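<instruction>
Derive structure tokens from the sequence
<data>
Labelled lines for chain and fold
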Amino acid sequence: MSGVGSSLKGRLILITGCTGGIGQATAKAFARVGCSIAIHYNAASSKAKAETLINHLKILAPPDVKPRFAAFQADLSRYDEARRLHAEVVSVLGNPDILFSNHGIAGPKIGPDGDIRDISPDIFEEVWRTNTGTSFLLAQLCVPYMESQHWGRIIFTSSVAAGNGGVIGPHYASSKSALHGLVHWLSLRYAKEGIPTPVLTSSSVTADTAMMANPSPEAKSKIPVGRLGKPDEMADIVLLLASNGYMTNKVIVADGGWTIGGF
């Protein structure tokens, strides 16, 4: 086995939000290179989708390895559920070598011309807790094992809203920009321990996800390549980031050219 991802053979990755578009595509990409995968799903109604994904991953896995796949349900708007998720993954599959924190919610959409009074503090806090708080907690829970073996990867899914305000609202945009600050601190602290921490900024322009299932013509018009991204394109980037121990403290913007430069 050679090429991107070949060094990851035998590693365990925890992917949150794994039954969504980006999550499923990423699970398939990591299965192809021989990784074991902890599949997280949020709603009980997604259990069948998670089980179907596991069956597909078994087919994709290389014949010379025996990766393990298991599904775990948790409501990641709650800290106690994030702790339970991590504990169950460790009990069933072991400690994750790679965390891809990909879950998140949008909350109410008020748009760039909305009224800030339409977002209550309770809504603001729920979106932050889900998008930022439990991502932080999962990283906190995963780091000690990664540090002990001097190898690990922590990757977050962000959004172009973190850099330009986006099309949803202040609650969502600010929760995603907070991930960028978290990445910068984690990278400065733990890169020397073999744990690079980049963030993939893409989700609000990715097709085939619930958040952008029916994009407006206005949203599409902002993208120079003329279309929304594909989950497979995002998965390729996650695989590259996990494979590269030198790429850290960076916001990787995959948005079809919507934004100019980095942020």
Summary: The longest helix spans residues 121-149. The domain at 6-254 is CATH 3.40.50.720 (Rossmann fold). The two ends are 36 Å apart (CA to CA). The longest strand covers residues 36-41.
